[in-house]
Amino acid sequence: MTRVAYTENDIGLVARMMRAEAEGEGKLGMLMVGNVIVNRLKADCLDFRDLRSIRDVIYQVQGGNYSFEAVQKGNLFYSPARGVEKDLAKKVLKYWRQHPSQYALWYFNPYAECPPTWYNQPFTGKYKQHCYYEPIANTCEGAYRY
Fold it and tell me: What's the pTM value of the predicted model, to 2 decimals?
C-alpha cells in the first residue's frame, strides 16, 4: 500500500525538490522534506485544501510566491534527478515517515533557533538546519492519516 498515488514524473519532481531543499542534510534530511510534500497532498486542509497531485503540491502558489522556494530560486530543482534521489522519493511516496516530519506540513531554515510556532502551528522538532511544524490538533485530520 502506498501513501499517495504517483507517476514516474512525480518521482522525479519529488526527488528534485528533496535535493534542492535538503541536499546538504543528507539522505535523512531529504526524506524529511519529501515527507512534508506527501503530507501536504494527504492533508486536504488549511493552506493545502484541494491539492490533488504531487505537481499541485510542488507548484502551489501562496501569497504570490511558490510554496517551495527552490521552484523560483533553485538551480538544483531544475537539474535532472539522480538515481539515489529517485530511490528516496519512491521510499517517501510509498511508506516512509519519521519524527520530526512525520505529520509536519511546514519546514524552514531560520538560520537561528527554531521558533516555538510557525504561522501559529506548533514546532515538532529540528533536523540539522530545518525546523518542522505540524498542524494544531483537530485542525487538520488529513495530516495524521497514513
Answer: 0.96
